[in-house]
From TrEMBL:
It comes from the Bacteria. It comes from Ligilactobacillus ruminis (strain ATCC 27782 / RF3). Residues 141-211 form the DnaB/C C-terminal domain. Residues 29-124 form the DnaD N-terminal domain. This is DNA replication protein DnaD. InterPro entries: DnaB/C_C, DnaD, DnaD-like_sf, DnaD_N, WH-like_DNA-bd_sf. Belongs to the DnaB/DnaD family. Residues 211-221 have a biased composition (Basic and acidic residues). Pfam families: DnaB_2 (PF07261), DnaD_N (PF21984).
Amino acid sequence: MFPGLFYVKVVFSMDDATVFMLKKGQTSISNLLLENYTDLGLNDGEFLLLLMLMKFDQQKEDVDLEALSKMMGKTDAEIGTLLNNLIVKKVVELRTVIDASGRQRDCYDLSFLYEKLVQIVKNQLRTRSQKQETATKEQVFDSFQKEFGRPLSSIELEEIRCWMEEDGYSPEIILLALKEAVLSQAYNFKYIDRILISWEKQNVHSAMDVQRVKDQREEKKTNRKKKKGNANRPKIPLSHWSGVDKDA
């Protein structure tokens, strides 16, 4: 009897704990913020307070400074200093709003924070793109030196740079032009430049486009050979194979 009662009490207690946890809810935190809060100029204390403000914001609650002091184990003055730091660093903005009952109250707007996070993403993507572009340019230079079997001169390096930066040719199309020149045993920058100009006129911007032009060229050659063969084929009088003279 007693074990049964004890078991019931334990289950009831666990249910209460579960309900309590569910009522407390959860605070969603961006990994981008976790990984880059120091880039926002925040120290650990300011970051922790920011997380607390996010908690209040997501749960649609007014910021309780007394509760903040207890949760963070800091005095009201210390909390005030941290809040001021977040405002000065333009991570949060203190605004006065009018609630549904027409009363004015202060709230901490996190819009600045999200704008800064968006800017961090843009900067990271820009940096990644620049690194990839630099790596691709290096690949072009290395490929030319490998195929030419010697270091490139400063004039040749400048020519490649102009192709990419001034003429707007992609590294991919330049490498394809180099390949065409190598296949033709023409290790000549002027020859490669003529290929690029010709491809530009034909709207060639990728390996698929190059193949398209090759296929069209081969098709034209085949058609010319067929026409030439038909033109050179001797005309046989009808009577030669039918046994009947058409004039008879």
